[in-house]
Amino acid sequence: MRTVMRRFAQTAQATQTSRAAPARQRGMAAIEFALVSGVFFMMFYFVVTYGAVFVVQQSLSRAAAEGARALLTSEFAASATPGIRTSSVIAPEQLGRDAAARVVAWLSDFRQTQSQPAIAPAVVAAPNCASGMACRTVTVSYQNYAAYPLIPSLLPSSMMPQSLSASATVQLDPEQWARAGGS
After folding, report:
1. DSSP secondary-structure letter at 79?
2. Could you tell me if 114 and 72 are in contact, meaning their C-beta atoms sit under 8 angstroms apart?
3. How far apart are CA 81 and CA 37, in angstroms?
4. Span 177-183, average pLDDT
5. In degrees rounded to 5, what are phi and psi of residue 36?
6. Predicted pLDDT at 12
7. What are the two backbone dihedrals, phi and then psi, of residue 77, each rounded to the nearest 5 degrees?
8. In this structure, what are the phi and psi dihedrals at residue 167, rounded to the nearest 5 degrees?
9. N or C: which end of the chain has fewer CB within 10 A?
């Protein structure tokens, strides 16, 4: 009988201890959530911030490629191919700048909301070109990205790129380029 009483007393004491334990742990889940959610939020924010850098860089690369493609199109548009509209009124360089500017119009609008100049693509003669060919490079730049990022950064500006740019070079036949009105 004593062993039964002893076991009953041990069981009762264990039950009281287990009931008292949750009272001492009250609020622990909230503290753990606060610690974990803060770290998770910071990691998520850094991923989104760097993702925005990649989105801008990809948009600039696509704009440069579209500008170069427009230069190629202008080369063939002035040819004697029937059914293709020629663009003798607009210079091929302007067609390249306009095509690139259309792709980054959303970035230009964003920059103008922050009192920054719009993104202005440039078309210049490429210095390293095969002999007998006319080469043009389309360059698109987002200047001062560290000061005016797409998503405000919690990182120091030294960790963000100062500017982003992309370029695409196209090799053209000089005779067709001259007929298209290129300089």
Report:
1. S
2. no
3. 64
4. 66
5. -70, -40
6. 63
7. -65, -30
8. -145, 155
9. N
Give the count of domains, the chain: 1
Q: CA angle, 116 as apex, 95 and 137 as ends, to 5°? A: 30
Residue 84: the pLDDT is 47
Distance of CA 60 to the CA centre of its chain: 9
Q: Would 146 be classed as within a structural domain?
A: yes
Asked whether residue 27 is domain-assigned, the answer is no
Structure confidence by residue, pLDDT tens digits, 83-107: 445 555 677 888 889 999 999 999 9
Residue pair 161/53 in contact by the 8 Å Cβ criterion:
yes
Strands 134-142 and 164-172: antiparallel
164's tokens:
């982003």
Please provide the size of the chain in residues. 183
In the chain, alpha helices (H): 2-24, 28-77, 92-103, 105-113, 174-179
